[in-house]
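Hey, resending since the last one bounced:
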Amino acid sequence: MTPYEYKLPVSGEAVRWVPLKVGQQIDIQMLYSGTQVPYQAPSLLAARIVSIGAKTGASLSDVRDWDENDYAALWEEVEEKEAERARLVRKKDAPELVLQKLQRAILDAKEATAKALRQLDQSLEAAAAAVAASGRAGDSPLG
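The structure tokens again:
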């Protein structure tokens, strides 16, 4: 999957992230289940991060060093994008399908137009040939 890109509002760092696979999310949730340590959410966020600036990946300590507004803003971005992605994927006609249908309709219209132009050319050639043939015979259809 192509990573999402987001610029943290306070630090200005560029963050690239991807949604978690189900197994990754389960592993992190199990790691912190039954504990009072509030690191589950930051760990889930860190696991999504592909890169921060030039640095590949992110650790829990990287996320812990952020300004709270950067942390909250990225969480909001993640929740918004993942919810949007879920809505689109679960629809019968996701935008990709609508785009494919539109592209197919455009191709069909171009093909129909080309066919109609070929038929028109053939009709004009036939009419011109008929006019030329009748002119040679001495009786012009134009009177």
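The helical segments are 22-32, 40-48, 60-64, 68-90, 95-137.

Sorry for the duplicate.
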